[in-house]
Specification:
Length: about 100
Protein backbone atom coordinates (compact mmCIF):
# COMPACT_ATOMS: atom_id res chain seq x y z
CA UNK A 1 0.00 0.00 0.00
CA UNK A 2 1.30 3.47 -0.82
CA UNK A 3 0.49 6.39 1.45
CA UNK A 4 0.95 9.98 0.39
CA UNK A 5 1.00 13.22 2.32
CA UNK A 6 3.22 16.23 2.86
CA UNK A 7 6.32 14.05 2.81
CA UNK A 8 7.27 11.77 -0.12
CA UNK A 9 5.19 8.56 -0.43
CA UNK A 10 5.84 5.96 2.25
CA UNK A 11 5.40 2.21 1.79
CA UNK A 12 3.47 0.50 4.56
CA UNK A 13 3.41 -3.29 4.79
CA UNK A 14 1.54 -5.27 7.42
CA UNK A 15 3.71 -8.26 8.27
CA UNK A 16 3.40 -10.87 10.98
CA UNK A 17 6.43 -12.90 11.87
CA UNK A 18 7.96 -14.64 14.85
CA UNK A 19 10.60 -11.95 15.18
CA UNK A 20 10.48 -8.36 13.96
CA UNK A 21 13.75 -8.89 12.11
CA UNK A 22 12.79 -12.04 10.19
CA UNK A 23 12.97 -11.31 6.48
CA UNK A 24 12.03 -13.89 3.86
CA UNK A 25 15.01 -14.35 1.51
CA UNK A 26 14.77 -12.39 -1.68
CA UNK A 27 11.43 -10.85 -0.76
CA UNK A 28 12.70 -7.28 -0.43
CA UNK A 29 10.17 -6.84 2.36
CA UNK A 30 11.10 -6.14 5.94
CA UNK A 31 13.87 -3.73 4.98
CA UNK A 32 12.94 -0.65 7.01
CA UNK A 33 14.95 2.55 6.89
CA UNK A 34 13.69 3.32 10.38
CA UNK A 35 11.91 1.23 13.01
CA UNK A 36 9.28 2.34 15.51
CA UNK A 37 8.95 0.20 18.63
CA UNK A 38 5.66 0.79 20.45
CA UNK A 39 5.47 -0.02 24.13
CA UNK A 40 6.41 0.98 27.63
CA UNK A 41 9.79 2.64 27.90
CA UNK A 42 10.40 0.75 31.15
CA UNK A 43 9.41 -2.61 29.63
CA UNK A 44 12.37 -4.95 29.34
CA UNK A 45 10.84 -6.62 26.28
CA UNK A 46 10.26 -3.33 24.46
CA UNK A 47 13.71 -2.02 25.32
CA UNK A 48 15.24 -5.27 24.05
CA UNK A 49 13.41 -4.98 20.71
CA UNK A 50 14.80 -1.46 20.26
CA UNK A 51 18.29 -2.59 21.31
CA UNK A 52 18.28 -5.49 18.81
CA UNK A 53 17.22 -3.19 15.98
CA UNK A 54 19.94 -0.67 16.82
CA UNK A 55 22.52 -3.49 16.98
CA UNK A 56 21.50 -4.35 13.40
CA UNK A 57 22.09 -0.74 12.37
CA UNK A 58 18.44 0.26 12.04
CA UNK A 59 17.66 3.77 13.33
CA UNK A 60 15.02 3.12 15.99
CA UNK A 61 12.45 5.21 17.84
CA UNK A 62 10.75 3.89 20.99
CA UNK A 63 7.31 5.41 21.67
CA UNK A 64 4.65 4.75 24.28
CA UNK A 65 1.92 6.57 22.32
CA UNK A 66 1.32 7.86 18.79
CA UNK A 67 1.59 11.42 20.11
CA UNK A 68 5.34 10.89 20.62
CA UNK A 69 5.96 10.43 16.88
CA UNK A 70 7.74 13.47 15.47
CA UNK A 71 7.06 13.78 11.73
CA UNK A 72 10.31 15.72 11.25
CA UNK A 73 12.28 12.67 12.45
CA UNK A 74 10.92 10.78 9.42
CA UNK A 75 11.83 13.35 6.80
CA UNK A 76 13.26 11.57 3.78
CA UNK A 77 12.37 8.12 5.18
CA UNK A 78 10.35 6.04 2.73
CA UNK A 79 10.03 2.73 4.58
CA UNK A 80 9.19 2.49 8.29
CA UNK A 81 8.91 -0.72 10.28
CA UNK A 82 6.62 -1.05 13.28
CA UNK A 83 6.90 -3.59 16.06
CA UNK A 84 5.70 -3.67 19.64
CA UNK A 85 6.41 -5.20 22.99
CA UNK A 86 4.47 -8.32 23.92
CA UNK A 87 2.25 -6.51 26.42
CA UNK A 88 1.60 -3.42 24.31
CA UNK A 89 -2.18 -3.00 23.97
CA UNK A 90 -3.49 -3.49 20.43
CA UNK A 91 -5.11 -0.05 20.43
CA UNK A 92 -1.70 1.60 21.01
CA UNK A 93 -0.20 -0.33 18.08
CA UNK A 94 -3.17 0.65 15.88
CA UNK A 95 -2.86 4.34 16.86
CA UNK A 96 0.88 4.34 16.12
CA UNK A 97 0.25 2.67 12.76
CA UNK A 98 -2.43 5.26 11.87
CA UNK A 99 -0.08 8.11 12.76
CA UNK A 100 2.73 6.59 10.65
CA UNK A 101 0.38 6.27 7.69
CA UNK A 102 -0.36 9.99 7.95
CA UNK A 103 3.30 10.98 7.62
Amino acid sequence: MKCTGVLPPVSVHRLRCSTPFATPRGSGRGRAEKLVVAGGKSSGNTKRLAELARMRGVPTVLVETADEIDAAAFSGVRTVGLTAGASTPRYIIDEVERKLRLL
